[in-house]
Amino acid sequence: MAQYVLAIDQGTTSSRAIIFDHSGSIVSTGQLEHEQIFPRAGWVEHNPMEIWDNTREVIGQALSKANLTRHDIAAVGITNQRETAVVWDSTTGKPVYNAIVWQDTRTQPIVDRLAADGGVERFKQKVGLPLATYFSGTKIVWILENVEGAREKAEAGDLMFGTTDSWVLWNLTGGLEGGVHATDVTNASRTLFMDLETLQWDDEILSIFNVPKSMMPEIRSSSEVYGTVNEHSLLREVPIAGILGDQQAATFGQAAFDQGEAKNTYGTGNFLIFNTGTEIVHSKNGLLTTLGYKLGDAEPHYALEGSIAVTGALVQWLRDNLGMITSSEEIETLAATVDDNGGAYFVPAFSGLFAPYWRSDARGALVGLTRFVNKGHIARAALEATAFQTREVLDAVNADSGVPLTELKVDGGMIKNNLLMQFQADIIGVPVIRPVVAETTALGAAYAAGLAVGFWSTLDELRANWQEDSRWTPKLSAEESARQLRNWKKAVTKTFDWVDEDVL
């Protein structure tokens, strides 16, 4: 009898395969990074073929490390970087262009063109999202308008679009030999094209964007059998039974299944999701309305989301672009060499500002500099930027929901940073809680898949798996927290209105 579930976590910087047992504990992991491609300022791309090759290899790594075979795996779940757009030729199986990553800002002229009639909130009531470069829709338009022959192939019905979950699913289930072209409601809700109420592609919006409906994957629930792994894989005949976009997967992995529950993921960017239950709540404070999850034929659960573009990516930038540190872990050691930020504030608006501002004209700024400031202060300011941005999103969630959060569950790579977690508690004024299993994104995908095949039977069973590892309580005075937040908000205003016609 199969004792495990395997989750494929196709993330922004790497692809991983993680095998979980029935208690939700990690058995083994395989991981490979993929290249970050920056052809021009503001452009971010990935090679979809590299992602697919890496996905196959990490599956092999995870199985090998645990000495397991396909017979030990009850189901496969997929979670993925959302909004990143892959367009491929259904007759060759090859991408027509690199994947355009969620952080990419090249589509701003397309956003402006579409917003000329009705503004950036033109479609927000129906799809829950403002017009922004962040979402997949404008990326598809860019490929159709800029890749030679793409428009003609699309009109002929020969192109497929998908976020990376769809790309992995299609390949895993056979690709050209009968691959399944589908996505789940959570990923579909990040395209600008899905009606939140009907959970279907909206023909009128597709027409306005001039995107052929034939390109779009079938929208399915987050927990059902989509197909089985094809015969050429180590996992052949294993059912693929769960798909959740990474942030929704992390929420599911945190067992935040009910209205009023929330989590914050600290990764390349930060994403706070607040479960609004079966009710669609439209934000008045700069948050997104999105799908939380849908289990089979059950009613969908919705959520409010605060998306922050750059958090962990700022640490990577200090490492890779400036050489200030040689590994991401060193940022905490460097930041701990000083007692505070020395008056420096770092606003990492590298791709503009996401929630709650939605300012595509913003660019990064390091302000408050004096001769006193050293690299320790800059490291600390970089970490604090993550906490300040989270505070602003949390304020928006509290305003929209009317029910202030009393604690914040956290996950993602940055939560190993104790200095950051303490400052996060200090600046939001409520406890911050880290679970024992920090890989909640992959765990959520595993849970969705396991539920679909009966490996787990109820949500209560999953709740019982959740365990607290560490808790940070606020130590900073309310007055000092308010002072620092005031300075942060002042720093944010210095990033506005930077981009104009002659600035890259």
From TrEMBL:
Asked if Nucleotide-binding is a keyword of the record, the answer is: yes
Keywords in alphabetical order: ATP-binding, Glycerol metabolism, Kinase, Nucleotide-binding, Transferase
The entry's cellular-component GO terms read: cytosol
Q: Note how its activity is modulated.
A: Inhibited by fructose 1,6-bisphosphate (FBP).
EC code: 2.7.1.30
Q: Where, in this chain's numbering, is sn-glycerol 3-phosphate bound?
A: T12, R82, E83, Y134, D246
UniProt GO molecular function: ATP binding; glycerol kinase activity
User: PROSITE patterns in the record, alphabetically?
Assistant: FGGY_KINASES_1, FGGY_KINASES_2
Which Pfam families does this one have? FGGY_C (PF02782), FGGY_N (PF00370)
What's its catalytic activity? glycerol + ATP = sn-glycerol 3-phosphate + ADP + H(+)
Q: What is the purpose of this protein?
A: Key enzyme in the regulation of glycerol uptake and metabolism. Catalyzes the phosphorylation of glycerol to yield sn-glycerol 3-phosphate.
The entry's family comment says: Belongs to the FGGY kinase family.
Q: What is this protein called?
A: Glycerol kinase
Native source organism of the sequence = Cryobacterium lactosi
